[in-house]
Amino acid sequence: MPKIKSSKRTKQQPPEGWDEIEPTLTEFEQKMRDAENESTAGKRKVESTWTVMRVHHQRSRYIYDLFYKRKAISRRLYDYCLKSGYGDANLIAKWKKQGFEKLCCLRCIQPRDTNYGTTCICRVPKAKLEEGRTVECVHCGCRGCASSD
Q: Where in or outside the cell (predicted)?
């Protein structure tokens, strides 16, 4: 997940409709800064990045919903947002595929990041887990992103 810097953003003028979504994206940017500057005292090592991952997911989901679900923005504006780094194009591509509609992050489906070469525990449907067992993903803190939940 690349860090967004204002100097690296595209130099072109934003397309039509940018004025309507800019305040929300600016708010997400502020949340991201707050999450990056948050103290890690009293947290486990893996917990320190969870808030950053959640904000990243929310921002990408916002752009995805605007374009694919609500059809509120144009293709040009959607491409501009992805090119500028406001959304994660790879994560959005996974959301379009069946079975990955609720995917929290790309690390959860990479088998090389797990002990047994499978997907993350948060991808297991809650019906298949023991009753009363709470599951937290080590990578992003997700409590279950299987599509069947």
A: Nucleus
Phi, psi at residue 81, to the nearest 5°?
Answer: -65, -40
Residues 6 or more apart whose CB falls under 8 angstroms from that of 23 comprise: none
What DSSP letter does each residue of 76-134 carry, written as one string? HHHHHHHHHTSS-HHHHHHHTSTT-TT---GGGG-GGGSTTSS--GGGS-GGGSPTT--
Alpha-carbon distance of 65 to 46, in angstroms, equals 29
> HSE (CB half, 13 Å, CA atoms) of 77?
18
Specify the 3-state DSSP secondary structure of 15: coil
How far is the C-alpha of 66 from the C-alpha of 73, rounded, in Å?
Answer: 6
User: Quick one: tokens of 53?
Assistant: 């991952």
Model confidence pLDDT, tens digit, residues 50-85: 999 999 999 999 999 999 999 999 999 999 999 999
Average pLDDT over the chain reads: 90
* pTM for this prediction: 0.86
CA distances to 2, 6, 52, 74, 102 from 66, in Å: 22, 23, 21, 9, 16
